[in-house]
Give the backbone structure.
Amino acid sequence: MSQVLITGMSGAGKTTVLRELSKRGYRTIDTDYDDWVLPDGTWDEPRMSALLASDSSLVVSGTVENQGRFYDRFAAVVLLSAPVEVLIERVSVRANNPYGNSEADKSVIRRYVLDVEPLLRNGATLELDGRRPVSELADVVERLIAAADQI
């Protein structure tokens, strides 16, 4: 079974796409929650390894420093991207996560778009515009899963 990683900057739409895929019956893990990320900002590697060793189709979202160690275990690594001002607007109005409300957070997001997003782009197998409708983004991920399951 195939496993897909959705990555990108805060506000790109990772959680929203995951929620849509979950509604469609896919198993999803948002690593921003439930202690997947350790205090040093990296994934809990033994826990992630155990998760990815399962035989079930799975869509994972997250953006952490050590995610590249797991790229070979994913059928696809999808980068959701959007212009920095779209990201800032989205994080400023979301209710499920306080990150992005302060000016300091917004400065960090701007810096990460310049410094981190290019690294994510280099590791991604596909980049999608996070401004597209959520249903379209979920359709693309669904097709990736189906194609990987055919192999």
Observations:
- The longest helix spans residues 134-150.
- The chain has a mean pLDDT of 93.
